[in-house]
Design goal:
Layout lengths: L2 H7 L8 E5 L4 E3 H17 L11 E5 L4 H12 L3 E4 L6 H11 L3 E4 L4 H10 L4 E4 L7 H6 L16 E8 L5 E7 H14 L8 E3 L6 H14 L3 E3 L5 H9 L8 E4 L1 H8 L14 E4 L6 H11 L4 E6 L3 E5 L16 E2 L4 E5 L12 E6 L6 E2 L3 H7 L6 E9 L5 E6 L4 E3 L2 E3 L1 H8 L5 E11 L3 E10 L7 H9 L10 E4 L13 H7 L10
Parallel strand pairs: 1-10, 3-4, 3-5, 5-6, 9-10, 9-11, 11-12, 12-13, 24-25
Antiparallel strand pairs: 1-2, 7-8, 8-18, 13-14, 14-15, 16-17, 17-19, 19-20, 21-22, 23-24
Helix pairs in contact: 1-8, 2-3, 4-5, 7-8, 10-11
């Protein structure tokens, strides 16, 4: 079983129908997807790639969102490779870690980044480096243009590696979650049934494609149902609303976003029942949504957002109902476990808890990953003796079977749908002149869900300038990780064991970004 084979089998028998309509007016047909992925797959095979430690060869992509970037992902699957999507906001130091850890055979970067990526790729012993721009430019497409547009899909076993997604722990060291063809396909098939995907659906795709939400949940649903996508290179409220209201076929009917996107859509006065009348489903994930956002959106559009819950290691785990006959969409809940997915709430000793009792969330199912790349000890720690994955999240299950998440066992911050791990940011801040120590926390933010802030203790006689500190960090790490505010205290609050009490810092600065939702 090859995931690409399953996706390809669902494509319409009318190859000239539109598959992807871009915001620049460019239209890709299903035949275009077939031919382009064949040519890219033939290019990959012509390189005679070799995997490492018994794994398939890894193709890593550090590029901007484009249809061609999606085609590269599909071609990697088609050729039997494993795909590694990377956030294009990552800087050299961050990218170097992923290259050295995953040891990709192929690395694709933006043309503008090639100069600084070349030595990084050489140090990581990457066999082949290509470039890909968001305007259909770069060496990857130039080389693929000479390849045959026919290709026989590579055969892969269900549990062979299909993709690597990097997540992190509180230590700041990223972990590569290894996802198999079975993991990804089982999850996509379940979502198609659960969300009533129809042949006349059309997805408005405004998410990035370097993480599970935009690349797997969104794209897999559309490709596995053979329905088109209206493709936006980046999220823009005006463009999204125009896509909702365009009456030309294929007409938009589904939108997937993170809470930040919904907040920004609500800031546009034209968002109402009329402008969304053709839409049947709004899905939100990657971060908790504020109750106020839910309520205002429902009041303005007459539609209740479907909130769901997933992780890089597991794909989707829970979802509020799509069909009214299966129950209400409960605001403040991520819904019920997906069919075939087990979710249990346990105490610190692994004992199952009764309903309405908060505990640790553990999960099991065909969607759950096989382990972390090169980290057998961490993998073993993350699973219980009876095979359940410890999510690190805290929550409860109510008597109706709905899961309610109340927080995270670790200090993970989710801002705008992106994961930020405080220890990593603190390691950068603590190296800056004038900083004795630091603590990074997330506090409520009306736009991003959580806003990253830093609290520092200054070196005696020197107080770093907030603007300068933030500007310096922007040169070292991705923008979404950079604290939006920096505060200075004489000392950080600590408990009797000397551990910084971040809960007290979150309470102290919880009103930093307080505003009224429109």
């Amino acid at each position: 079983m090859n995931l690409f084979t399953a996706l390809r089998a669902a494509w319409p028998a009318t190859p000239d129908d539109p598959a992807i309509l871009t915001d620049t007016g460019l239209v890709y047909t299903w035949q275009d997807l077939e031919r382009a992925t064949a040519m890219l797959a033939n290019l990959l095979e012509s390189l005679h790639l070799h995997g490492v430690d018994g794994r398939p060869p890894v193709v890593a992509a550090h590029v901007d969102k484009s249809v061609e970037a999606l085609l590269l992902y599909l071609a990697a699957l088609r050729a039997g490779c494993a795909f590694l999507p990377l956030n294009p906001a990552y800087r050299a130091g961050e990218l170097a870690y992923f290259v050295e850890d995953a040891r990709p055979s192929v690395l694709v970067c933006r043309p503008a980044d090639q100069e600084w990526v070349i030595p990084l790729a050489a140090q990581g012993q990457v066999e082949h480096l290509f470039t890909l721009g968001d305007e259909r430019n770069g060496s990857l497409l130039a080389h693929a243009a000479h390849q045959d547009d026919q290709h026989q899909h590579a055969v892969r076993q269900p549990d062979e590696l299909a993709a690597i997604l990097y997540t992190s722990g509180t230590t700041g060291r990223s972990k590569g979650a290894m996802l198999s063809h079975r993991n990804l396909l089982s999850n996509a098939r379940t979502l198609l049934r659960l969300w009533d995907w129809r042949q006349d659906d059309c997805l408005v795709h405004a998410l990035p494609i370097f993480h599970i939400h935009g690349l797997f949940v969104a794209c897999h649903c559309a490709l596995l149902s053979g329905t088109p996508m209206r493709w936006l290179a980046r999220f823009d409220p005006t463009s999204v609303l125009q896509a909702f209201q365009d009456t030309q076929a294929p007409r938009a009917s589904v939108f997937m976003g993170v809470p930040t996107m919904y907040v920004r859509l609500l800031q546009d006065e034209t968002l109402n029942a009329s402008s969304t009348q053709g839409m049947r489903l709004f899905v939100s994930g990657s971060a908790p949504m504020l109750t106020a956002t839910h309520e205002v959106f429902a009041r303005r559009t007459g539609q209740t957002i479907l909130e769901r819950y997933g992780m890089s290691e597991t794909g989707m785990l829970c979802s509020n109902p799509c069909r009214r006959s299966e129950g209400p969409r409960v605001i403040g809940s991520v819904g019920k476990p997906l069919p075939g997915v087990g979710v249990r709430i346990v105490d610190d000793h692994g004992k199952a808890l009764a309903t309405d009792v908060i505990g640790q969330v553990e999960v099991q199912g065909p969607n759950v990953f096989g382990g972390y790349l090169g980290m057998p000890d961490k993998t073993a720690e993350s699973f219980t003796p009876d095979g359940w994955f410890k999510t690190g999240d805290v929550g409860l299950m109510d008597p109706q079977g709905y899961v309610h998440l109340s927080g995270r066992a670790k200090d993970l911050i989710i801002t705008g749908g992106f994961n930020v791990y405080p220890a990593e940011i603190e390691s950068h801040i603590d190296k800056l002149p004038g900083v004795a120590e630091s603590a990074v926390v997330g506090v409520p933010h009306p736009d991003f869900g959580e806003g990253v802030i830093a609290i520092i203790v200054a070196t005696p006689g020197l107080v770093p300038d907030e603007a300068h500190l933030i500007a310096t960090l922007k040169q070292a790490i991705a923008g979404f990780k950079v604290p939006k505010r920096v505060f200075t205290l004489a000392d950080l609050p600590r408990n009797a064991m000397g551990k910084v009490q971040k809960n007290l810092l979150r309470q102290q600065y919880q009103d930093t970004f307080r505003t009224v939702l429109p």
